[in-house]
Amino acid sequence: MESVHGQRKNEHLALAELNYKKNPPVSSLDAVRIIHRPLPETSQADVNLKVDNADFPWDYPFYIEAMTGGSAKTSEINTSLAAAAKATGVAMAVGSQSIAMKEPAQVAGFEAVRAANPNGFMMANIGAGHTVEHAQRAIEMLQANALEIHINAAQETVMPEGDTTFYWKDNIAKIKAAVDVPVIVKEVGFGMDAQSIAELADLGIEYVNIGGRSGTNFAEIEDRRNRENPYQYDFLYDWGQTTAESLLEAQLAPHHPTIMATGGIQSPLDILKAQVLGAETVGVAGHFLHTLLKDGEAGLIAEITLWQRQLRELYALVGAKNGSDLVHVPYVLSADLQNYLTQRR
Ligand SMILES: Cc1cc2nc3c(=O)[nH]c(=O)nc-3n(C[C@H](O)[C@H](O)[C@H](O)COP(=O)(O)O)c2cc1C
């Protein structure tokens, strides 16, 4: 029998997949067009996809983003994600480990994720309201190489049993100062603005995942979890900045940490576009979950392998030999997105 918290994890998973199938996400990065240049002067063999960052020494600039864990069903999914990460050499984050702080029986499920990929790059995940001790336990339980701290005020607002207090900045700074792995502060799909990104930099945060809108929608998921009174928050389904808008916000920030992106990534071209707009690395959640549930572990491994090949092809197509060359790639924005940028400048 699952606990109430474990049941919530199962519902997140089921509703994310249901929504994905019903309304496949349209990436906000469709509003960004890369300018084709027919003389790239490159070769696919000369492309190096490695991330040039000692904290994240990854072979590929995209990874499996935080989703789940904390119940029998979701631990099984997490272990499959870890096996796919191992087979393809991509990094992976687990979903929030807060459940394992309250229910020690759930620790084993997270330990199993590490056991499925003993040498892979694994990221722990905890909410911004948790104590330093919880953050440290989350890292230990996974022998994590990095820690994601998620910030999710909009999700908590809609969540029937959600938190009502969002004093997070001091706590984030305390966790960052205490732990000895790189810390990423991430949104869960409502995006970020320039000021918040600069404030995180001021707190000493070196990595920010802008976690933008246009993919998995936690306003909708939490609203639908309220079976007795669903659709009470449908006015918040479009709340927040899209992934494309959030990446432009990061460009507008007076100073900013290294940027990571997630939210609505549907193809290797979306990864490339997010990188062209300034993300060093790009996380994929809903699409990989859907692939796993539809095609199994072998199907997910095939999809990630295909994306790795296609991303290399795209780098060569735009004349980039590595991630840092992507800043020179020209692009245009849709009229709407340009309008957003003009108003926010
Ligand atoms: C089923 C599910 C559960 C999630 N749980 C968490 C979580 O516990 N912690 C977190 O930081 N993000 C969580 N996320 C958010 C993802 O990490 C990601 O930021 C978001 O889904 C947007 O990416 P996507 O559009 O590729 O799904 C979850 C996503 C899904 C699909």
Describe the protein's architecture and organization:
The protein has 345 residues and is α/β, with parallel strands linked by helices. It has one domain: Alpha-Beta Barrel (TIM Barrel), CATH 3.20.20. 45% of the residues lie in helices and 12% in strands. It contains 13 helices and ten strands. The strands form two sheets. It has an eight-stranded parallel beta sheet. It has a two-stranded antiparallel ribbon with strand order 1-10. Strand 8 (258-262), helix 11 (268-276) and strand 9 (281-284) form a beta-alpha-beta unit. The longest helix is centred in the last third of the chain and has 32 residues, at 286-317. The radius of gyration is 19 Å and the shape is globular. The N and C termini lie far apart (52 Å). Bound molecules: flavin mononucleotide. Flavin mononucleotide is lined by residues 12-13, 16, 65-68, 95-96, 125, 148, 150, 186, 188-189, 211, 215-216, 262-265, 284-287, 289.
Largest sheet: 8 strands, parallel
- Number of beta-strand segments: 10
Approximate helicity band: 40-55%
Span between termini: 52 Å
CATH domain class name: Alpha Beta
What general outline do the C-alpha atoms trace?
globular
Order of helix and strand elements from N to C terminus: HEEHEHHEHEHHEHEHHEHEHEH
List the helices and strands and how they pair.
Layout: H1 4-22, E1 32-34, E2 62-64, H2 72-88, E3 92-93, H3 98-102, H4 107-116, E4 122-127, H5 132-142, E5 146-151, H6 153-158, H7 169-178, E6 183-187, H8 194-202, E7 207-209, H9 218-225, H10 243-252, E8 258-262, H11 268-276, E9 281-284, H12 286-317, E10 331-333, H13 335-344
Parallel strand pairs: 2-9, 3-4, 4-5, 5-6, 6-7, 7-8, 8-9
Antiparallel strand pairs: 1-10
Helix pairs in contact: 1-9, 1-12, 2-4, 2-12, 8-10, 10-13, 11-12
The structure holds flavin mononucleotide (FMN).
Flavin mononucleotide (FMN) binds at residues 12-13, 16, 65-68, 95-96, 125, 148, 150, 186, 188-189, 211, 215-216, 262-265, 284-287, 289.
